């Protein structure tokens, strides 16, 4: 599901040239003109040339963001409509195919919901059906009418969908930036309050030690013991604050990874399955995702990165693969080919990022392996027991009881 959504977001909207091949619908009319099968061929040729010029002008001006909201697209569309009705009424036959092209151009110009697209398309479809009925027959009327309404509505829907996706992407990025700013502000405020109070107490008690030391050594030692206790308590609180700031859920890290890969122009395929995980397990896997994706973005030169999380009854497996330059591209990175013990394997590339992760996963009963992918690129695999305890937690508990 993640991969499909990401693929849709990476699709580019159709450009101006994408609508030009539809002009080949008029190739039969142009051939008839050259063969002299059309009455007054010079007039028909002038009408065909005017239609093509106005169609191209309408498409190019309405898909140009600087000119889209000016009068130029509407004037070009009005001229295109006049030529279409003249050719349809005067020649009929295959010239009635100008109406679906006119409807397509109308869908491009009038898309967005602020202009009367629906009534215009219905009017074009009805009038095209009436003209085709008078000049051809009932079958021609239905065909032209259906093609006219379909081409305009489908074109407008597709372009509106792409524009909505672009707006949602921009909104998501803005919300992500706002969330990061709020979190940084919260953390800086908490850290300021914590250290401000602690350092004030330490300064006051240190001054008391300096005053009491020459007169009352026992009292001075008591104040020094208080400084030690305050320092230990501050260390515990700082660790708790940092842990709460740096460790988020695995889902959050996967979303951040997808966003970072998209920003780097790397196709992201994210898949997750399995039961819910303990917070400590999610935190550790979140670290693996962050480190692995950082290496992919900085050093791999990859075009595609796959992240897969599979959960079983007793173990959870996270695998990150890319199609980049492989181990050689990590020569200056932070990656390291590591094993469960946290030591680099033979021939591994040095780096502290993955070594530290391997040590943390090993302490939690898991493992971390990295190296060349099966075909090309780089592969990072982390495994953990489903229920695991963060290796930082014993240190926090020891600090609390010290």
Structure description:
This protein is an alpha+beta fold and 402 residues long. The chain is built from twelve helices and five strands. The protein has a five-stranded mixed beta sheet. Strand 1 (267-273), helix 10 (279-300) and strand 2 form a beta-alpha-beta unit. It is elongated. 30% of the residues are buried. Residues 1-6, 331-351 and 388-402 have low confidence and may be disordered.
Give the helix/strand layout.
Blueprint: H1 2-10, H2 27-34, H3 41-62, H4 72-91, H5 98-109, H6 117-135, H7 138-212, H8 217-246, H9 250-263, E1 267-273, H10 279-300, E2 304-311, E3 315-322, H11 352-363, E4 367-372, E5 378-385, H12 393-401
Parallel strand pairs: 1-2
Antiparallel strand pairs: 2-3, 3-5, 4-5
Helix pairs in contact: 3-4, 3-5, 4-5, 5-6, 5-7, 6-7, 7-8, 8-12, 9-10, 10-11
- Class based on secondary structure composition and strand pairing: alpha+beta
Taken as a percent bin, the fraction of beta residues is: 5-15%
- Determine the number of helices (DSSP H or I, runs of at least 4 residues): 12
Question: What composes the largest sheet?
Answer: 5 strands, mixed
**C-alpha termini separation:** 48 Å
Name the helicity range: 55-70%
Average pLDDT metric = 76
| Estimated radius of gyration | 34 Å
Question: What general outline do the C-alpha atoms trace?
Answer: elongated
pLDDT < 50 stretches: 1-6, 331-351, 388-402
How many E-type strands?
5
**Topology order in helix (H) and strand (E) letters:** HHHHHHHHHEHEEHEEH
Strand order of the largest sheet: 1-2-3-5-4
């Amino acid at each position: 599901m993640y991969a499909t959504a990401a693929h849709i977001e990476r699709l580019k909207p159709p450009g101006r040239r994408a609508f030009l091949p539809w002009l080949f619908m008029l190739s039969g009319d142009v051939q008839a003109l050259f063969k002299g099968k059309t009455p007054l061929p010079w007039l028909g040729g002038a009408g065909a040339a005017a239609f093509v010029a106005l169609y191209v002008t309408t498409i190019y001006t309405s898909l140009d963001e600087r000119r889209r909201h000016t009068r130029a697209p509407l004037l070009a569309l009005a001229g295109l409509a006049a030529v279409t009705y003249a050719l349809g009424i005067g020649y009929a036959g295959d010239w009635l195919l100008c109406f679906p092209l006119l409807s397509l151009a109308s869908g491009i110009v009038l898309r967005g919901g602020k202009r009367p697209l629906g009534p215009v398309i219905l009017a074009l479809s009805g009038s095209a059906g009436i003209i085709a009925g008078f000049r051809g027959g009932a079958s021609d009327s239905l065909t032209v009418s259906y093609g006219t309404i379909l081409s305009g509505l489908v074109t407008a829907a597709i372009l509106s969908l792409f524009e909505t996706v672009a707006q949602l992407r921009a909104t998501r990025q803005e919300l992500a930036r706002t969330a990061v700013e709020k979190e940084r502000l919260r953390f800086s405020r908490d850290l300021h309050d914590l250290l401000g109070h602690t350092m004030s107490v330490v300064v006051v008690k240190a001054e008391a030690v300096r005053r009491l030391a020459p007169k009352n050594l026992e009292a001075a030692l008591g104040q020094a013991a208080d400084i030690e206790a305050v320092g230990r308590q501050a260390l515990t609180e700082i660790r708790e604050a940092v842990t709460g700031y740096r460790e988020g859920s695995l889902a959050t890290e996967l979303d951040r990874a997808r966003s970072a890969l998209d920003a780097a122009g790397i196709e992201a395929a994210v898949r997750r399955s399995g039961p819910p995980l303990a917070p400590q397990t999610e935190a550790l896997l979140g670290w693996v995702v962050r480190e692995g994706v950082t290496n992919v973005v900085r050093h791999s030169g990859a075009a595609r990165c796959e992240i897969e999380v599979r959960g079983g009854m007793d173990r959870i497996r996270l695998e990150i693969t890319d199609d980049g330059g492989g181990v050689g591209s990590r020569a200056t990175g932070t990656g390291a080919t590591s094993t469960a013990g946290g030591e680099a394997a033979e021939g591994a590339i040095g780096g502290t990022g993955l070594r530290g992760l391997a040590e943390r996963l090993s302490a939690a009963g898991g493992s971390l392996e990295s190296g060349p992918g099966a075909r090309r690129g780089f592969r990072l695999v982390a495994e953990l027991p489903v229920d695991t305890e963060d290796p930082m937690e014993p240190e926090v508990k020891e600090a609390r009881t010290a």
